[in-house]
Each structure stands twice: as structure tokens, then as C-alpha cells.
Amino acid sequence: MKSFAAFFALLMPAAIAADIPILPRISAHRGASHAAPENTLAAFQLAWQEGADAIEGDFHLTADGKVVCIHDADTKRTAGIRHVIAETAWDDLKTLDVGSWKGAEFSDERIPQLADVLDVLAPGKFFYLEIKSSPLIVEPIARILAEKKVDPAQVILISFDPQVISECRKKIPAFQAHLISSLKDFDLSGKPEVYAAVLKECGAQGLHFDARSEVTPDWLNQLKASGLSLTAWTADDATLARKMISFGVDTLATNRPGPLRIQLTEVEKPHPEKR
Question: What per-residue confidence (pLDDT) applies to 14?
């Protein structure tokens, strides 16, 4: 079976001829998590097969200092047994089955370490590394990135915590650091100014925002004009994705990178003339 990447390469000349607009970067949120268990190597590898431009994964620090890929602060939802990541050693986490909840065929999936995810980062692709822990995780991440000799152009550090972003700018200045925000209550008086001030204060080089927020294109254009990169999450619906594209985002985060790209590049066929 041909990969999605090969499929789109074959379609590209036709797409150009049909004047299909160039899409923003498509990032697989927790991997291709629509079909594979989130934050596993299976999900990241499927994302590449579906033609994703980037993957996004979540990272916590274990009790013994390992940087591991999992969204929640504990393992209950994906492993069925509760271990608090920050209070548990790697030896107690590495054997957990975090794939069966998605399907029996994923029963061999385990929690990956950061180094494992970096090993499947495809050439020319990108990786949004979301930090879920405190700023204490930044130094271990910096060490792993150095050990793996990662190209800073391929990895972007992201976090909801402005302090984490500040620490990334200090400790890993070669890598871009973007702030994540839901932009809650954006439509309230003074809120846009508050969000802009936080971005500036922590030194963020980009903003990842909730695509369903009340954000305005004018405000986003101001950020973009100041040099910030813009990512909208999580756009699984083609209508919402198109709205974000019209807002000028640089990246769309989605759980379904392959299917969404197909929807966004479909050419509407004219209706046959009535006789």
C-alpha cells in the first residue's frame, strides 16, 4: 500500500493545476490519534504514513528523571492502572500497556521516552514537543536534544506555562519556544492585551491557540506581523480548519492528519448541466 505522502506527491501537479491553495503545516496532535493510541510510536509512525508535516507529543518527568511521552499526569486513562508520572520510576512505567484501550492490535505499545520519539522523527519533518511538567524538565530535555544531535530547525518546544517558555529561551535558545493558550474569554474587554503581554513577557516565539476560541483575525495578524508563528488546535473538522486557514495560521494541529488533508485538498466538481 502506498503511503499518504506518496499519494499526495502524485496528486500535487493536478492540485496546482486546479489552483488548490497551499495548506499550512499539518501537525498530528499526539500523533495520528484518530486511529492509533495517542502519544505512542504507532501514532507517530502512522502520522508520517498519512503525510503529516509534523507530530506533536506531550512530555512529563518521571520520579527518576526520565522524560516520557504521555499526556495525563497519571497513567489511569491510557493504561487502566493509576501511576502518577512524577512519583513513579521508569522501571514501573516502561512495561505498561498504553495501546489496548484503542484496540487489541495495539497491545504492544508502551510509553515512549523522548529519545524514542526523536528516533522516529522523519527527515525534513517537524516535532512540537509539549512540556507538561514544571521548568525542572527543561534541563533534561536540553541534555537529550544535545545527545541526539537534533537539528533545532525540526523541534519546537511548546507549553501552557509561561515560566516553562522563559526557561526554554534561557536554557535551549537554539530551539523555538511557543506558548499554548486556550484564549479563554478573549472577547472580554482587555483580554487581548493581557494575552499579548504574557506572550511578550515570556519571550514566546509563537502562539498555539484553541481554534474554537473567540480570537479575531486582526489580533492574530498583529502577532504574525511581529514575527510570531501561529498554530491552531485541534482542527479535526474541515470547516473549522478552513476558517483557521483564512485567519492565516502557519500550522493546523489535528488528530486526523491524513483524512483532513484529503478533505482540504478535494476539488469541488461542477454539477452536471440540467437537460
Answer: 44
Domain presence at residue 188: yes
Q: How far is CA 248 from CA 61, 191, 215, 254, in A?
A: 34, 21, 12, 16
- Residue 150 half-sphere exposure, CB side, CA atoms within 13 Å? 31
For residues 246 and 39, the answer to whether their CB atoms sit within 8 Å is no
Asked whether residue 6 is assigned to any structural domain, the reply reads no
Contact 177, 204 (CB under 8 A): yes
How many other CB atoms are found less than 10 A from the CB of residue 275? Answer: 3
Strand partners, 158: 130, 178
β-strand pairing of 229-233 with 67-69:
unpaired
State which H helix or E strand residue 174 sits in: none
Domains: count for the chain: 1
The reported pTM is: 0.91
pLDDT for residue 21 is more than 70: no
- Which residue bears the cell 483532513? 260
Q: Which amino acid is at 190?
A: G
